[in-house]
Amino acid sequence: MKPLRHPFWQAVAILVIAYLLIAYGIPHLPQLVGMESAPVPGSVVLQYMVTVLVGVLIWVSDSDERWNRFLEPVRATMVDGDKRWLRLGLLIALPLLVGLLAFRQVRQTVAAPPSLRSIHPAPPSSITFRGRPLNLAGLDNPLRADGSVAEDYEEGKRVYYQNCLPCHGDGLDGRGHFAHGFTPAPLPFNDSGTIPQLTESFVFWRIAKGGPGLPKEGAPWNSAMPVWEDILTEEEIWAVIVFLYEQTGATPRTWAEAGEGGE
Amino acid sequence: MRRSASLAVPFLAALLLAPASLVAQDAVPGKAEYDRWCAGCHGVDGKGDGPGATTMMPRPRDFTTGRYQIRSTPSGALPTDEDLTRVILDGMPGTAMPGWRDHFGEAEVRDLVAYLKSFSPFFESQPAPEAMEMPSAPGADEAALAEGREFYQKIECNKCHGEAGRGDGPSAPTLEDDDDLPIRAADLTENWFFNGGGSVEEIHERLVTGLNGTPMPSFQDLIAAEFMTEEQLWRVAQYVRSLAPEEPPVVREVVRAGRVEGDLPASVDDAGWDLAERYYVPLVGQVIVRPRWFSPTVDGVWVQALHNGSELALRLVWHDPSESPDPQWDEWQSKVLALMAPADSPADASPDTAAAGASEQGPLSGSQADTTAVAAASPGASYPDALAVQFPRSIPDGMERPYFLMGDDRDPVYLWRWESGQQASELLARGLARYEPLGGSQPGALVAEAVFDQGEWRLMLRRTLDAGGIEDRLGFEPGRAIPMALFAWDGSNGETGAQGAIGSWYFLYLDQPTASSVYVTPALATLLTAALGVVLVRRAQRRARNDA
User: Are B255 and B484 in contact (CB under 8 A)?
Assistant: First the structure.
């Protein structure tokens, strides 16, 4: 008898394949498109497996003939004299397995509360910079007005190396030599998900007001991003913004792309 | 020191020639990448004086000297191209020098190496350096480590690195590199921060070749002088490797305080701590509010926690080569302050900022701006070592919690602060180093015991779980995630106030007493399944007999 023709072994095969796909296959999907991934939580695996099991049972019980063939090996194990040891083994192993699963459910587990943080929350429409009101909507980098940014790049480089380096790193990859001390980690600028998506006005707001300037959904209490208006001048901030874009080869989002006055 | 690199004479001669070899570098391959990615630290002229240099200790390498640390070549010699390639790709862990493996292709690195060499006339004037033949590693066992330990003392590694290898030897406070800048003797228990890598082979290579430009000598001449054998030098490398853990510590977000029945460990070195899980919390320089601090001593704290339902005890262990204040380290302190303080002296604080109210848009009150009012360290004064454990004033229900740098005016934090030579105190803080006494708290309510032992502080802090009805004083509740953060200061490194080592929020979780249901439920499930199985088998067998 070919095992894989037999509905019992087919059912077993389906369950095993489903388990492998859910527990080990799915976590690889995001990586294919270059996204971060995490293991599938046990409770989710359990849910999916129950669904698959119900599906398989419906399928095997769909026709009487298949159902009877499906039950054959089960019955044989319970009844046949030559399967006595297998029977005994299963009668001991299965209850222990159930006990173990139950223990894993009820024992004390400790996980950090989930921290749901919006990385790019909506910016305010205006701020005060060192006490002076500044309208963010429609604001462009004034240093770009004269057409050349070569000098501003050099100035921005100085500002960056003296201030931003320990966190955001000299590769602008968020891996400075102090970055490992901070959660959330300093953001990488060479990532398509950060500054290329933002207007320079948004970036100015983030630099000027830092972590503490974030709205609640940005979890301002956790962010190590300093409030740079306390340390840098307005010019220095615009210059470092020029540096961020030039050094990574990214272009800022324009107001036309951003739509009416918002992100 | 006796054996330090002797490049001085050719160097002086070459100084006169140097300008000639620096001309016409414009179209040189490697220059563009260098100017773009390396010059910010190493300077456009390779002198190690880029704009970022003043925020670093150790300072970026001055390529015009031809002195390189991570080499496969004899002491005092130039590095090979492979040595330079490796340092560029892997960086120098424990310093600001990053690894560029993800950034450059092979050809770019080759051009960079050629360009770095062009900064120093020595690569032209001296024969091409050659890698030394390294004997292969002998197997290591207990006896080998004991022999390594013996030679560690015999050849005076302990003078600089200390008996336990924590960088606290008697010479440590006086060490200077060839540019007369203060330099730390490496903490040999943290091999993940070794500049040239932490494997036995890499350590052995450092011992054979020395680190040119630093007080860390080569020991090859001791083999030549038949003071020790090649194998014995390997033993030292193996012993040094054994001082550090197998793997670098893994950072976990939740510090679990296990529950003990009866008494908590009575002292900081009580055997009761042996069973408590150890958690590593990395700390880094406070580079967020002024006055900033770019070269902290403490790079991490090991935390253990236990409670017994009425009291909580924390055991905190960290490395610090000096038991501050310690006059032996006074010189070190003034050298470090002279080197690092100008990078961010409060003098260049713009006067108009303090009033700005940093973040009127955000939910935090922005009082961090006022930290400029916290005095920076001054070279003449002496400071204690200190450690602070920060909690919110009450366990938060949602995600919200105080600003991680000791809160602010709107949401202050509840703080335990210990200083060497003093009792620990319970405080309220409204921003970094803006402490206030906690109203109504009794002296001695927080019990501290500290031991300084060969470059290591071990501190136990103990308090009742119950807040005792005192306002702003956190009550610890088992079964809940309690935000916790750590701060540390090394007084002899000029650290005080806002200038020290800081970390992010973590969680402290006090285990609940194990409910009986944790054991009863699985046992019940096992029994029920077994009974069900037996019944099913019985029935099937009966039916089979009837059928037959």
Answer: yes
Q: Which of A171, A212, A216 sits opposite B358 (nearest CB)?
A: A212
Residues 6+ apart with CB under 8 A from B328: B173, B322
How many whole angstroms separate alpha carbon B415 and alpha carbon B400?
Answer: 18
Question: What's the pLDDT score for residue B2?
Answer: 41
Domain shared by A86 and A173, yes or no: no
Between residues 284 and 313 of chain B, which touch chain A (CB distance below 8 Å)? 284-285, 287-290, 294
Output the tens digit of pLDDT for each of chain A's 263 residues.
577 788 999 999 999 999 999 988 888 887 777 676 777 877 788 899 999 999 999 999 999 999 999 988 888 888 888 888 999 999 999 999 999 988 887 877 777 777 788 899 999 999 999 999 999 999 999 999 988 899 999 999 999 999 999 999 999 999 999 999 999 999 999 998 899 999 999 999 999 999 999 999 999 999 999 999 999 999 999 999 999 999 999 999 998 887 754 44
- CA distances (Å), origin B418, targets B46, B292, B408, B531: 44, 21, 21, 59
Both tokens of A247, joined, read: 């050094």
B204 residue type, one letter: H
Q: Which one of A108, A213, A233 has the shortest CB-CB distance to B511? A: A108
B535: which chain A residues are within 8 Å (Cβ-Cβ)?
A: none
Chain A hits for B367, Cβ within 8 Å: none
- Spatial separation of the C-alpha atoms in residues B478 and B142, rounded to whole Å: 43
| φ, ψ dihedrals at B439, nearest 5° | -60, 135
Residue A152 to residue A139: CA distance in whole angstroms: 18
Residue A152 sits in the same domain as residue A240: yes
CA distance B375 to B371: 9
The CATH code of the domain that includes B60 is 1.10.760
* pLDDT score of B439 more than 90: no
In a shared domain, residues B237 and B351: no
Full residue range of the structural domain in which residue B17 is found: 8-125
Q: What is the pTM of this model?
A: 0.86
Residues B470 and B524 in one domain: no
Between CA A222 and CA A219 the distance in angstroms is: 6
Out of B186, B208, B242, a domain closes at B242
Q: Is residue B482, in this structure, part of any structural domain at all?
A: yes
Kindly list the residues from chain B whose CB atom is less than 8 angstroms away from the CB atom of residue A129.
Answer: 356
Q: Which residue of A has its CA nearest to B347?
A: A231
Among A113, A173, A227, select the one facing B358 at the smallest CB separation. A227
**A198: domain CATH number?**
1.10.760
Identify the domain boundary among B215, B242, B269: B242
Of the partner residues B36, B253, B521, the one whose CB lies closest to the CB of residue A102:
B521
Q: How far is B39 from chain A (nearest CA, A)?
A: 10
| CB contacts < 8 A (A, B) | 215
Enumerate the residues of chain B whose CB falls inside 8 A of the CB of residue A175: 98
In a domain, residue B137? The reply is no
Q: Are residues B538 and B409 in the same domain?
A: no
What is the rounded CA–CA span in Å between residue B543 and residue B548? 9
Residue B132 covered by a domain: no
Q: Please indicate whether, in this complex, the C-beta atoms of B525 and A102 are within 8 angstroms of each other.
A: yes
